[in-house]
Design brief:
The chain is of the alpha+beta class. Helix content is 43%, strand content 12%. A hairpin with a 7-residue loop joins strand 1 and strand 2. The radius of gyration is 26 Å and the shape is globular. GO terms for molecular function: 4 iron, 4 sulfur cluster binding; 8-oxo-7,8-dihydroguanine DNA N-glycosylase activity; adenine/guanine mispair binding; metal ion binding; oxidized purine DNA binding; purine-specific mismatch base pair DNA N-glycosylase activity.
Amino acid sequence: PAPRHLFSDAAEVGAVRSALLAWYDSCKRELPWRALAANEPDVDRRAYAVWVSEVMLQQTQVATVIDYYNRWMQKWPTLQALAAASLEEVNELWAGLGYYSRGKRLQEAARKVVSELAGRMPRTAEELQKLLPGVGRYTAGAIASISYGQATGVVDGNVIRVLCRLRGIGADSSSPAVLDRLWDMANVLVDRSRPGDFNQALMELGATVCVPKAPLCEECPVKQHCHARRRRLAWGRPRCRSAYGPTATSALVFAGAGGCPLCPPATEPWDSSLGVTNFPRKAAKKQPRVARAATCVLERGGRRGAPRYLIVQRPSSGLLAGLWEFPSLPLAPGLQEEKQREMLAGHLQAWGGRPVAAGGLRYVGEVIHIFSHIHQTYVVYSLPVDEDVTLDAALSPSRWVTEEEFHASAVSTAMKKV
């Protein structure tokens, strides 16, 4: 890579560290996991508090996480308490937070620490990633730097954005080669005396100032080091080996002199209307898979008390593993409604042990829910049933619940929409 892409100047590295830490000390958000980590003298309990927050924050906004985090730490204040909990309890608390396998893997790792590591957390990023299931490179780096003071960098979505803009990196930021370079940069840049604070500062900058759209460049503490900002001010795309000077024009194009692997490709010109948000660049996002399912809300009772609804438990692996839902079955593309009803009736017959007339299913409507990789449509039906309907114990776990019990159960947001 060209020198301008790298943090190779010691004076610049020191200036970036100092500016970011000073900004973080005065501008950081007050968040519950930061307060816990700051006030917890036991390093393993501090690591647990950080770990839970980092797992919850994956793919989820801070505002959403705060309430879940507070309830989680109140219910399971220690790693040992989490290890003793049931997966059902974990799923119930996690319900609505999304990406449900995160909670399951977190508990599996907690149980491993208790049963195989004598309750002692691994102390380095390398050991954390190696020994704990579900702990990847980023989470391991965050725990090790914030809780144990290891001088190791972190790279998440916010850090990718900040580094790509600071160093003018226009190659596909999701490619393994570019990610490796970004990790190298993060490890060079991390402050040796305050690694945890520095990593949080870098992430905080990306979350509050160097945001994806409409970044607050004039409020950035390291704006004088930002190559993307220099390019915006120069209104041009200088060649890789040249400086960002006032003579640069929008006609200048560079595909990376000498085959620079971090420069933008010549086929993707600089868009002056986007400014610094030209960076980072990613490969085109894969379109989510389209899927449909028939779902039936079976209702019984109501005369002598609240109506009850049948929910069944999903398999222990795969999408929404272990969560509860109304009886559902996937539908093939292009299936006619009459055939949908017949298939759903046959599916329901297995649960109740008696024939179900397809004509008795009342069509309610359709619910669309977007998972990260699936555009899911639920075709919703309802069916009243007699009080004496019994369930086949040989099938997946199932139970009748009131509406209040339903919302307190480990059900997905999609089923709440249904």
